[in-house]
Amino acid sequence: MQLHPNDSIAVIFCAQRCGSDDQAYQAAATAMGDLAAQQPGYLGEDHARSADGFGITVSYWQDDASAKAWRDHPDHTLIRERGRDKWYSAYSLHVTRVERGYDWQK
Amino acid sequence: MQLHPNDSIAVIFCAQRCGSDDQAYQAAATAMGDLAAQQPGYLGEDHARSADGFGITVSYWQDDASAKAWRDHPDHTLIRERGRDKWYSAYSLHVTRVERGYDWQK
Question: Fewer Cβ close by (within 10 Å): the C or N end of chain B?
């Protein structure tokens, strides 16, 4: 969890897992997270998943060009197809621009 | 999980729970969710929390004025103080504007 600058891009991905094929899903999720972190313009990621399989991943990018480049990455495109085929029953994705932010720590 | 229109506001709240005072926290979270849903300009909310207490809540608003009005609501302000005092060890909040969105369902 990290504060990102105004005008950066936050991609909000909400998805309901089917619950099946968990080992392959976890391996792919880790590999995609690692690969995303190597892309130009990557700023960070936050992720939470509830016990019922509903998850939110927010990835943060320096600009829209870097977010789009990650969307179009061949490995990412391939895994997205597998996600629709095997892992998810539904998802939504919003590409947003940060207007202001705050953080706090005890 | 729902698709929201371009130019709407998405408020991304990431927070680490302390783990203490769970019953009071759950009651307050439910009450705040219900109250938020009654505010002008409210579009919806997505929420996930992992077993380690890390959670993401995204609330969606018609415009920045309605997001700010909810931020400044007296009950919300009061509960935010209690959150810092009792429930959270850290949080980040990004106010963002939706540039584009997609959804998919099996």
Answer: C
Residues in chain A: 106
Chain B residue closest in CA terms to A87 = B106
A93, two tokens: 């994705």
Give A9-97's CATH code, choosing from 3.30.70.100, 3.40.30.10, 3.30.70.2190, 1.20.120.550. Answer: 3.30.70.100
This complex has an ipTM of: 0.96
* Cβ pair B47:A56 closer than 8 A: yes
A60: nearest Cα among A23, A5, A100, A9:
A9
Does the reported pTM lie above 0.90?
yes
